[in-house]
From TrEMBL:
It comes from the Eukaryota. Pfam families: KIF21A_4th, Kinesin. The keyword ATP-binding applies. Keywords: ATP-binding, Coiled coil, Microtubule, Motor protein, Nucleotide-binding. This is Kinesin-like protein. Residues 526-535 have a biased composition (Basic and acidic residues). ATP binds at residues 90-97. Belongs to the TRAFAC class myosin-kinesin ATPase superfamily. Kinesin family.
Amino acid sequence: MENSDGRSADCVRVAVNIRPLITSELLLGCTDCISVVPGEPQVQIGTHTFTYDYVYGSTGLSSSMIYDDCVAPLVDALFNGYNATVLAYGQTGSGKTYTMGTNYNGEGTSGGVIPRVLESIFERVKETKDSMEFLIRVSFIEIFKEEVFDLLDPNTSRGDATSATKPVVLGRVPIQIRESVNGGITLSGVTEPEVKTKEEMASYLSSGSLSRATGSTNMNSQSSRSHAIFTITMEQKNGDDILCAKLHLVDLAGSERAKRTRAGGMRLKEGIHINKGLLALGNVISALGDEKKRKEGGHVPYRDSKLTRLLQDSLGGNSKTVMIACVSPADNNIEETLNTLKYANRARNIQNKAIINRDPAAAQTQEMRNQIEQLQAELLFYRGEGVGPFEELQILKHKTSLLEASNAELQQELKRRRVSCESLQKRALEAQVERDQLIMKIEAIQNGKSLDKIDSNSNQDYNLVKAYVSKIQYLEGELRRLKTSNTTNSRHFGNCVDSEDDEPLSSDSHAKAMDLPDESEDDEKELEHSSLQEQMDKELKELDKKLEQKEAEMKLYNNSDASILRHHYERKLLEMEQEKKILQQEIEQLKYNLANISSNSDDGAEKIKQDYLQKLNALEMQVAELKRKQEDQAMLLKQKQRSDEAAKRLYDEIQRIKAQKVQWSCR
Ligand SMILES: Nc1ncnc2c1ncn2[C@@H]1O[C@H](COP(=O)(O)OP(=O)(O)OP(=O)(O)O)[C@@H](O)[C@H]1O
């Protein structure tokens, strides 16, 4: 099968992610050595031009699109029973960990792909869990100095996700790679806990990442010294059909040259092992990506390293694979960047053969069941016990299966609608709570309370308002119920009254009148009805009071104070934006000064450079803090808009209830 770009759907997809120049590179006076051809997935470096499936960063596509373009299709594939791999490759400090989000700790939003994978998997599980059983497990391993270690092994775990400091290394026992009879690669005894929520999965990722070997090199203060593979295994059971597939998320250690990283001692030894694994990976990519070698059926050296053995299925095997080549644009990295781009270019030629991983026993059972059905039909036909010719039987069977399929689809649709209905109800409740909370805030402001004090009380208020709104919803429900029962009673009572009307009775109504109970029964019914009426009048009055109260609140809310609050938020946002702009201008100015100092060899230049560097750092932190505050303000503003909408809906609802009530009272 071919894609619109003419490449086979099973080819390894390759994306290049160019990170921006980082402060340390700017301090060295580095400039961009790589450019992206506008509108094309093409990069130019020196005299070379390379084409990929996607190019992000440095004015190519925005790197925030990596997940949607490259990774979301792999999550789809996982749910369809295909193995999938995302592989981040590149020199040390080129942004692999940043791109993958391997250090995600479950809090906030990291730009990396892993948090989005977690989010998306559990959203889809939630959507389909009524018709499907899921079993999700995770494993997290690292290859450190050519040994495979289990990062989730509770016996050797070096800390938990909440620990702020890096835990101490305990003696770890490497795990063995095994090859199963059908050639599949397994890790004997690897810890594979079952996970049921996104948070649980994130906590395993986070505790494993803490245990991962990192160290400081000259090129990256937090350099990953090992190759890490986080694997999500998903088993889906639908009746007898079982699909079992794996998604590998691979964050490789950076390729590096000892001279550049100024590594010595332990770091040097680590580097040698890292490079050995990456060299083997390069050879595998060359063997698979070189058309000539592939046609000649040349040997693929998977066995040369643990890394290549573990990635055997991902490169040239049963997997849908995306490789994200991460590069730095700095001209002092040009040699490594060129190398990465060359490998990435070659990797585009790798052909995989992904197949749906159906449980063999379940697949066989299904096949046998079909066979039995077929044979039974044939038997009926030959015995002459069939209702008609064999073909007719086949048509009927086909029709039945079509009807069954459509039935299943309809049931699915029904379930989906139910779920969405529930979630809409929940959202309506939340919106009402928010609205009421805002009204309370406005009141508090009017009463002269400070914003800080209001915020500190808001949690307490939230629960109160929630309880209050649920109560109102309950009462509204009760009222509806009573209205219905009253309508029924009124009809019945109306019938009785009709029979006493002066108007002549039709023969039909006359017949009905004959069926009427005797007078004492009538009295009883009337009494019962009037007591019911009385009770309902009481409830109605109460509801009237509530409606009035709500309307008064709405009026209060709709008056100019609400717009004061909105203006307050908008003004704050604007102020922050201006402050951010000023800070960014200062940063630009500092960077410019720094660039000038870098080319200046004055004696005092180094001191000024250090001062600038410190100031730059402080300013960058200030900008980050401002950004966070700005996001908070924007969220508040959004919340406010949502509450306005909810208030409007509520107001409409009140009007509707009132209209209904008037109608009802007139009956
Ligand atoms: N797209 C980006 N935007 C801004 N900063 C980035 C980006 N990518 C990476 N960085 C920064 O570059 C530095 C190195 O990134 P990272 O640690 O992800 O590199 P790495 O390739 O994983 O390195 P190593 O192989 O040594 O572990 C970090 O400070 C990170 O914050």
